[in-house]
Design brief:
The protein is of the alpha+beta class. The protein contains 9 helices and 6 strands, in the order βββαββααβαααααα. The protein has 3 domains: 7-73 and 123-151, Ribosomal Protein S5, domain 2 (2-Layer Sandwich), CATH 3.30.230; 79-118, no CATH class; 153-284. The chain has helices at 46-56, 82-97, 107-112, 125-152, 154-192, 199-212, 216-233, 240-259, 264-284; strands spanning 7-15, 18-27, 32-37, 60-70, 79-80, 117-118.
Length: 288
């Protein structure tokens, strides 16, 4: 299963407690790197949500954001922290004793002091449950988007792999003809130079030339790597790192093929192979 690492998902929910929004964004990254921004009332869920991400995603930089708007509980009303209010009043009187023109402290000024006026505590249990469910739904949507984006890349890989197999087959079929032509060119050079041919020495030189220019192993490995890439694309697991390794191996064989080239056509095929490999490698960087 091909999954892209670039995706976005957003889910909203509401209840008697208020409204909650969850947004997930992912981009490519070598490893799984989650970053969670949670409101104060949901901070205790962070470890649980991180563990869920680790079990559902293979790699990628994941940004998780939640926004919570709690409904004000107007039935119970507000309460005054009388102990804190009395402490503030006592402190104000002490300060007034040392002032030349003490100012009166009003009730509203005392109520504005942090912690004096308290709202009734919310029951966060239903909010936590709603957050877990909403996060799961957003993660499901994110994975669906990643899979959909990944499947859109499948034709690109299939086309490049098919073209690579065709070019490898062309080089393989052309090698006997190229070696024969190389032999004829050597004979022609000796004849043009008026040098008498030593058939035994010529046979040795042609054998050495054939050994140096033998690319059958490179062609076999290219075919094997192409088959491995196809099998990896069908695997139901994160495949990005494996494909990245295979792209390196394919590129190494293409470079060797180019260095052993006996003919401009073989060089052209080798260059085309490297172009195809690079096109796939660029897409592999964004796969999970």
């Amino acid at each position: 299963m091909i999954r892209s690492m670039t995706a976005f998902a957003r889910k909203d929910t509401e209840g008697a407690w208020g409204t909650l929004t969850c947004e997930l964004r992912t981009v490519n990254h070598r490893y799984l790197e989650p970053s969670l921004r949670l409101p104060e009332g949901l901070r205790e869920l962070e470890n649980e949500l991180r563990e869920t991400l680790r079990t559902r995603l293979g790699r990628g930089k994941v940004d998780v954001g939640m926004r919570l708007n709690l409904q004000e509980n107007t039935e119970e009303g507000l309460t005054v922290n009388m102990a804190l209010a009395e402490s503030l009043n006592h402190a104000a009187r002490q300060v007034n004793r040392i002032l030349d023109n003490p100012a009166h402290v009003s009730a509203l000024e005392v109520l504005r002091w942090p912690g004096v006026l308290e709202a009734p505590a919310h029951n966060m249990a239903p909010v936590h449950e709603a957050a877990r469910q909403l996060f799961g739904e957003a993660l499901d949507e994110l994975i669906t988007v990643r899979e959909r984006e990944g499947e859109r890349l499948r034709p690109l890989f299939d086309e490049r792999l098919t073209e690579m197999s065709d070019r490898v087959a062309e080089v393989r079929s052309a090698m006997p003809r190229l070696l024969e032509r190389q032999s004829e060119q050597i004979r022609e050079r000796f004849q043009a130079a008026g040098v008498e041919l030593d058939e035994d020495r010529l046979a040795q030189e042609l054998t050495l030339l054939a050994q140096k220019s033998d690319v059958s192993e490179e062609l076999d490995r290219l075919d094997a790597h192409v088959r491995e890439v196809r099998e990896t694309l069908d695997a139901d697991r994160p495949i990005g790192r494996r494909l990245d390794f295979l792209m390196q191996e394919l590129n190494r064989e293409a470079n060797t093929l180019s260095s052993k080239s006996l003919d401009a056509d073989v060089t052209r095929h080798a260059v085309s192979l490297k172009v195809l490999i690079e096109q796939m490698r660029e897409q592999v960087q964004n796969l999970e």
